[in-house]
User: Fold this.
Amino acid sequence: MAEITKTPSLTWGENIKGQVSYYFPTIMIAVAFLALWEVAVRVLNIQQFLLPKPSDIAARFLEETQILLSGGSSLLYQAAGATLWSAFGGFVLGCGSGILLALITARWTIISEAAMPFAIAANSVPIIAFAPIMNNWFGLTNPASKMAIVAIIVFFPTMINTVRGLTLIDPRQLELMESYAASPFKTLFALRIPNALPYIFSALRVASSLSVIGAIVSEFFGGPRATLGVFITQAASGFDFDRAWSAILMAALIGIGFYLTVTIIERRVMPWHTSFRQTE
Assistant:
């Protein structure tokens, strides 16, 4: 009897080494870009109000971090927490309602065909123009006004992608489910939703970044001082550009962290997907 050889699984250390090797070119490009930025500002004598040095931005960011770690009150981190809450709340509301509506419209083809053109048309509208309206509805200092803007921004991409994942099914797979006399709900949970997961998470990754952008831009139209949008506006108007860029750095870190969180959840939910096997 022939022996079945089993491919040994990678150890934790080998997996980390592989991930570092995979992202090493990206890290080197980022380091080279920051170094070029620093040198260009010093050599060309670019004024601070045009473009601060990365070292000055990092120093201001570390100063705010030290204030927080020493038990003090850091307005930058308070603003980051408020913006993160608005982005997360809008992300949950918008993506959740988008997926729910996609499940409903995908169940009845006539509704999906009728609603999809309106969804695509609404997605082309500059949603951020509704920010003053939402501020008027919910109140200027109410986080719900920012969450509503974020929810509208992420709703349509999530809905459209989910509908595509639920409807773009191989006809042979549907015929197989029908041959097993599977109910519509069984087909939904056993076939349609697993097929739609890559589409859903693709939309969620995009929405994770859009939610942070939408929250900050909506704050430019007014809100509490302890939000990143207002923080950046006031710091720039006061010619404190190091502080403004430190807030921009904080916003970038929030967006990256949000994106990585969605990616980690995606790996946990669907480790069988080919895109993850190729990077291991």
About this structure: Confidence is low (pLDDT under 50) at residues 1-8.
